[in-house]
Amino acid sequence: MDKQHAEVSKFLSYVLRHQPESIGLTLDSEGWADIDTLITCAAKDGKHLNIALIQSVVETSDKKRFALSEYGLRIRAVQGHSSSQVDIRYKEQVPPEFLYHGTATRFLDSIREKGLVAGSRQYVHLSADEATAAAVGQRHGKPVVLKIRALEMHRQGLVFYRAENGVWLSGAVPVGFIDF
Ligand code: HQG
C-alpha cells in the first residue's frame, strides 16, 4: 500500500467505523455509506477522493477492512466499529477450538482481573492464527498472544461472529477461557 492509499484507508476507517458525523456522513445500521455522499462529505472536509481511488483502497487493503455493495454504490467497514449508528447483524458462527488475541504485556494485569473487554469497540477482536494475533498486539507495545478456548466458550452459550475478512468477534472473553 502506498502513502496515499494508507492515508485514505485510515480516513475511511475513521469515518466508517468511528466518527461518520465528523464529516456529516450517516451510516445505516449495517454500516453502509453511499459512496457519492461520502465523496461529497469528504471534499467539504478537504479530503479529495474519487470512486477509482476508493475502489483501489478497498481492493488493496491488507486486512480487507472494507466491502463494496453489490453494484458498487455503497461502502462499509466489515468490522472494528465503535459508532453507535452501526449494529451489523453478523451471523452466529461455531468457532474453532482455539482463537487468539494479540495484546500488549502492559494490559495483562487488567486482563487477568476483568477478562477481555471490548473497550471502545463493539466487540473483542480475535484471530484464527497466532501470527495475525501477534501483529495485532504489536500495535499496542510489547506483544503477547493469548490463547482463547473458543469452542468451550461457545458450548457454554457465548456467541461468536466472524466478519467478512475473517476476524472473529465476541462480546467479551471471561478470564476462565483465557490461557495466559
Ligand atoms: C485490550 C486492527 C486492559 C486489548 C486489528 C487491546 C484488529 C484490555 C486493547 C482490530 C482489556 C484494545 C482490533 C482489559 C482488552 N484490560 N486492556 N480487561 N481487554 N484489552 O485497538 O484487538 O488495522 O480496540 O487486548 O487488526 O487491538 O484497525 O483492539 O490491546 O482486528 O483494521 O485493549 O484493529 O485492525 O485495542 O484491534 P483495540 P485490538 P485495523
What does this structure look like?
This protein has 180 residues and is of the alpha+beta class. It folds into 2 domains: 3-77, RNA 2'-phosphotransferase, Tpt1/KptA family, N-terminal domain (Arc Repressor Mutant, subunit A, Orthogonal Bundle), CATH 1.10.10.970; 98-179, ADP-ribosylation fold, CATH 3.20.170.30. 32% of the residues lie in helices and 21% in strands. It contains 6 helices and 11 strands. The strands form 4 sheets. Strands 1-3-2 form a 3-stranded antiparallel β-sheet. β8 (160-162) and β9 (168-170) form a beta hairpin. α1 crosses α3. It starts with a helix and ends with a strand. The model has no long low-confidence stretch (mean pLDDT 97).
- Give the strand tally: 11
Distance between the termini: 34 Å
The structural domain count equals 2
CATH topology of the largest domain: ADP-ribosylation fold
Class based on secondary structure composition and strand pairing: alpha+beta
CATH architecture of the largest domain: Alpha-Beta Barrel
User: What would you call the shape?
Assistant: elongated
**Residue windows where pLDDT falls under 50 for at least 5 positions:** none
The percent of residues in helical segments reads 25-40%
Give the class-level CATH name of the largest domain.
Alpha Beta
Topology diagram in text:
Layout: H1 3-18, E1 33-34, H2 35-44, H3 51-60, E2 66-68, E3 74-77, E4 98-104, H4 108-114, E5 116-117, E6 124-126, H5 130-138, E7 143-149, H6 150-155, E8 160-162, E9 168-170, E10 172-173, E11 178-179
Antiparallel strand pairs: 1-3, 2-3, 4-7, 5-10, 6-9, 7-11, 8-9
Helix pairs in contact: 1-3
Bound molecules: ligand HQG.
